[in-house]
Amino acid sequence: MADISGLPGFYRIAEADPGRRAVIDTDGTTTTYGELLARVNRVSNGLRARGLVQGDVVAGVLRNGIDQVIMLMATGQVGLYYVPINWHLTQAEIDYILTDCDAGVVVTHESGGAEALAEGQPDSAPEDRSGGGVMWYTSGTTGFPKGVQRPLPGAEPEAIVPLYTWFLGEVCDLRPGDEAHLVTSPMYHSSPCAHTMFAMHLGHTLVIAERFEPVTVLELVDRYRVTNAMMVPTMFHRMLQLPPEVRDRYDVSSLKQVIHTGAACPVAVKKGIMDWWGPVLYEYYGSTESTIAFAVKPEEWLERPGTVGRPVPTFEAKILDENGDELPPGEPGMIYVKSSLAGFEYRKDPGKTAASMRGEWYAPGDIGFMDKDGYLFLCDRRTDLIISGGVNIYPAEIEAALLEHPAVADVAVIGVPDPEWGHNVVALVQPVPGPRPSPEELLDHLGPRIARFKHPKVIEFRDELPRTPTGKLSRSKVREDYLATRG
Hints:
InterPro entries: AMP-bd_C, AMP-bd_C_sf, AMP-dep_synth/lig_dom, ANL_N_sf. Keywords: Ligase. This protein is of the alpha/beta class. About 30% of the residues lie in helices and about 25% in strands. The strands form seven sheets. It has a nine-stranded mixed sheet, sandwiched between helices. The chain has a four-stranded parallel sheet with strand order 5-3-4-6, sandwiched between helices. The protein has a four-stranded antiparallel sheet with strand order 16-17-21-22, with no helix packed on it. The longest helix is centred in the first third of the chain and has 17 residues, at about 35-50. The protein is globular and about 70 Å long.
């Protein structure tokens, strides 16, 4: 393979080394950088042919596979926002996002995928190339998703890519070269999606798993000599449960960087993986809004087990109490971060944008403390947010759907710690007087309203739910009482 270390990203790498292996799809099909660029260019030209101009929005409701890669890289050179949508959502949930983001084009497998846009288009680079951006949708406490939108660079992609590659080198020791990145998670989530783009801009080979299965991941690492991957702690937990004879069947010595995020990783789990794979776990903490704000490399973490790291380059951080006063090292409070890079706004919601900020500082909503050396330790995630398997689940959305059932008077949805998933969703329902609905009836009621991964794993009934003096449901008291009764 050619030396691509000095080339600024995917498009230039593909031109210089077209035979380079770019993507190994879920079915094992291999696509080179040259072949991928030709398909990307055709789709870029197809989007232009449909009248889309800089700043317009394209949405993709796509499963893991090369179409996701094509849409990311095609929108990324013609100044468009790309909105990847979770295909597990109900049609009503998908329609809400499509309406809110004003998608000019929607790509689905049923409509022919990316190739439908490419049909009849030239494979030459589009004119007036300009960098695009990904707009991920994330829910707020109301349960309604909002698009996290950043300013477009207003320049060709090659002008901004070197900043990405420098940043990744600083944070994760990822460098351009003959490496292989394994996609283990749904590519509509922000971190797997971002790392897909990073891999292409670094000239790596992208190995895509259709879904996470412990043995499948180990097989792919062994077969393709995978060097880096992005995972969530649930995956580590499940792989550690494999019998020793199954683990020993696969060679994972090629792994150099396994980046994890999405939820707190139990110290014992992280140590267990590093005992098995070696000191290759890189962790970062942030959010869709803040991006990567803190990071820690393996050797640092082993010196300070439990930390999620120090502020990354371009970021500052502080811990504030409820009055907005800065707290000393070791004192827990609300985490605030600030970056010198371009900020974000919630699409069509300036009020929500303003509410999330304290001047230039953004609050991810989590509680933590920093030690004297500036390493952050998380105490608790957002009070109401449930993180299950690395996926954010918002109680208000589930509660609103359950309250549509005529037999439900009130409901509180909480996250209950689980050693594998991080948290499980539990719904405590106060029924109206009369015959009680069964848990199965309530789950059937949720079916057309919210995606299955948001459904409670446990539904229990309560004669009354605790409230604050103002009448507001007290989820913290519900959670305390529920956990207390279970030791």
